[in-house]
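For the sake of transparency, this paper describes our internal protein records without simplification. The record that follows is passed on verbatim for readers who wish to inspect the format:
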Amino acid sequence: MNERDLRYLVAISECGNLRLASARLNITQPALTKCIMRMEEETGTKLFQRKGRLIVPTSVGNVLIRRARTIIQSIDETQREIHDYVNGSRGHARLGVVATITEFLMPDILNDLTRSNPNVTLKLTVGMTDFLLDNLRRDELDVVISPVYESDEFDCLPIMKDQVVIVASRDHPLAGRPASLEELKEYKWILPQSSVGLRVWLERAFERLSLPPPQVQVEINSLPLMPKLIARTDLLSFTSRQNLTRTNGGENLVELAYPDITWERHFGIFTRKGGYIPTASQVLVDRIIQATANVD
């Protein structure tokens, strides 16, 4: 086995198609076919199988590809570590941040970083927790800032607290007055997809309070869009209190006071267990820890 073949196998498994994999790798499809044949001869078993138009790993193929990803990640991290050491440079940082805290946390940090470390380059990815952690898992990010949860895959350093509350437009029928839990059943919601931790917590809270699940009329994967959409509809939502002070629509929202449906959560800095953190990313982590030290 060699590194090149392992990279080819991973690309094929991720694309599910030789044409797409060849385009990603900038090599010919016959070269990928020969790679599969070579690896199947070496291992003595089939590594891929056809499923309709897709080519997918067999059970043995999945074992090999999982190991290949670990090997490739180790090689890439070693190369970056040596590059940092030899060049003595700050290098390149790859940071993922959930949208909830991007606007109020990152501008000052990035301004400070670019002024004091002008040679640092940064890839900043904004998204939801599951998307960011998947990128961290695949070694496409060095660090992720996201709500804290227990994981065997990642190390997590809690850095700041947050509260998630029910919100509505200022013109909503429930705004500005005490409301019962029963009244929540009468309205529909705009929420992120069902796998996102924020929605999972909300649905469990409803279940705990013997309420039917929220009626989701709009499912969205862009949190920055939510304040404007909520402000123009009678839809309810569940979002950080931080969003109520934003100028992207948050100034038109109000919190509905439901103490039993208020989520106290922590944000944390996630890194891969045992993974190498490049110098530039560590500098960024240090600045984030410093900036959030006094945030309530």
Summary: The two ends are 52 Å apart (CA to CA). The first strand starts at residue 48 and ends at 51. The chain has three domains: 3-85, 90-160+266-291, 162-264.
